[in-house]
Amino acid sequence: MSFVEIDHVSHTYFTPEAAFEAVHNIQMTVEEGEFISLLGPSGCGKTTLLSLIAGLMTPTYGTIYVDGQHPKNLKNTIGYMLQQDYLFPWKTIEQNVLLGLKVMKQLNETSKANALSLLEQMGLKNVRNQTPRQLSGGMRQRVALVRTLAVNPKLLLLDEPFSALDYQTKLKLEDLVFQTLKSFQKTAILVTHDIGEAICMSDRIYLFSKGPGRIHKVFEVPDELRSLSPLEARNHLSFTPFFQEIWKELESLENR
Amino acid sequence: MKIDDRISSLHQNYKLKIKKEKRFITICQILLFLAFFTIWEVASRREWVDPLIFSSPSKIWHLLLNKISDASLFHHMVVTLTETAAGFIIGTLAGTILATILWWSPLLSKILDPYLVVLNALPKVALGPILIVALGPGFTSIITMGAVVSVIITTIVVYTSFREVDPNYLKVLQTFGATRKQIFQEAVFPSSLPAIISTLKVNVGLSWVGVIVGEYLVSNEGLGYLIIYGFQVFDFTLVLMSLLIIAVLAAIMYQAVAVLEKLTAKNRN
After folding, report:
1. Which chain B residues are closer than 8 Å to A76 by Cβ?
2. Which of A72, A103, A133, A148 to mutate to test the interface with B (most CBs of B within 10 A)?
3. Is the peptide bond before A212 cis (omega within 30 degrees of 0)?
4. Is A56 in contact with B177 (Cβ distance < 8 A)?
5. Distance of CA A55 to CAs A64, A75, B99, B130, Å?
6. CA distance A100 to A152
7. pLDDT digit string (tens) for B213-237?
């Protein structure tokens, strides 16, 4: 059995006016340690699928298993990173980082020391007593990453976590997240609408079409790009042709 | 070097300008204060206005000194201040607790919605006679009046701010498997704290209304009682003195809450 199994999943939102199908018949498996990207235009149900995997909602049809269990029954197996950092402005950086452990009632000397050493590895130890407002966007998103990793999740769900950052910060953070996740051997699913980001970070890319959201095509990222860091991958010879291939596919989706 | 000198002299000018304006404003404020009381005094002495009704600053001042020397005024002030503070604190606490209950149960909040609207629209001082009959003429019913005037509006304002908390903060907590209680403690309440504190400012004023009206109705002590007593014996010097004391005390209480608001805002930034 794969680490993540998504079996014929469809999800429909209900309002008094209409029933709106967000994703339709999704079939997907992710092995442990893999990095997967969900790529597609806005409104194709990527975030819905991520919420379903996180167990925040139950799919209307189909089943999802993470580590052999329903996501709702899992505790601290899944970490979720949002588009913005959503650090709590009334808490210090240290309190923010320890939030997950506190909520899960796992805050003790060992787990606290782990979280703080993670903060140190990200070069953020000197700001631990500051508040989020005093930090730059890139620093804040790094803190959010530490907050997510502090509870030691096996699976990371990344919902466009770099989209609110300036380009340079985004590239640096891509590298940092990539290296960190690889070194801890985490499984990750990244939602993005940035083709380059999908290519340079992931092992496999699921291209979504909308109305309702479904998997249009699956791309395996070439081996020579997979082993490289995101910044190196962007400069590799095979990057551009692969980018073109996905670009054309996206174009054809729009013209349909 | 030359440019630096120029900048620093411009900066000096700029600071001087701000200082001058500030001084001008303060002077105007003092002049306005003096003019008001002078005109009042003169108008009363020359009988441009009826001195029996409008009294005069000098008479009020003499009465104030008298009342301070025989120590009766202090007692009335303490009574009213205690009632107002108690009504204010009870009203705010009860309103916040009610808002929490409504947040806890969205269904209950939908059911209670029309009742809240009606209660909010109702002039609460109209409940005075009923409260006095139910709770007895005295301290308890006056404090209740002070609380009742502010409790519903607090409930509505605080509940609205609970609901306006950015849902992404809640999502962060949900991904950690937080319970509803934890979500309330970690996100909903702290993020609404500024709204709660700004309702305090409104509530201070409302509690004064409730307490003074309560004292009109039943009391035999307090500043509201002094006003109604002065009215009954046609001693408007007493009425106006009480009024001025209330104005000063209410302003001090309001400022105290404003300082509290500033302190909490400081802790956040």
Report:
1. 176-177
2. A103
3. yes
4. no
5. 9, 10, 29, 53
6. 10
7. 888 888 788 888 889 988 888 888 8
Q: Which helix (H) or strand (E) holds A69?
A: none
Write down all domains in chain A, each with its CATH number in brackets. 31-57+154-256 (3.40.50.300), 87-152 (no CATH)
Any chain B CB within 8 A of the CB of A75? yes
Give tens-digit pLDDT for A2-52. Answer: 888 888 888 999 888 888 888 888 888 888 888 999 988 877 888 888 889
Question: Looking at chain A from residue 132 to 171, which residues have their Cβ under 8 Å from any Cβ of chain B?
Answer: 133, 151
CATH code of the domain occupying B57-268 = 1.10.3720.10
This complex has an ipTM of 0.85
Q: Which residue of A has its CA nearest to B167?
A: A86
Other beta carbons less than 10 A from residue A23's beta carbon:
27
Which tokens go with A146? 């530490």
DSSP letter for each residue of B47-78: TSS-HHHH--HHHHHHHHHHHHHTTHHHHHHH
- Does A88 sit within 8 Å of B190, measured CB to CB? yes
Domain boundaries in chain B?
2-49, 57-268
Cβ distance of A76 and B168 shorter than 8 Å: no
pTM over 0.80: yes
| A58/B contact by beta carbon, under 8 A | no
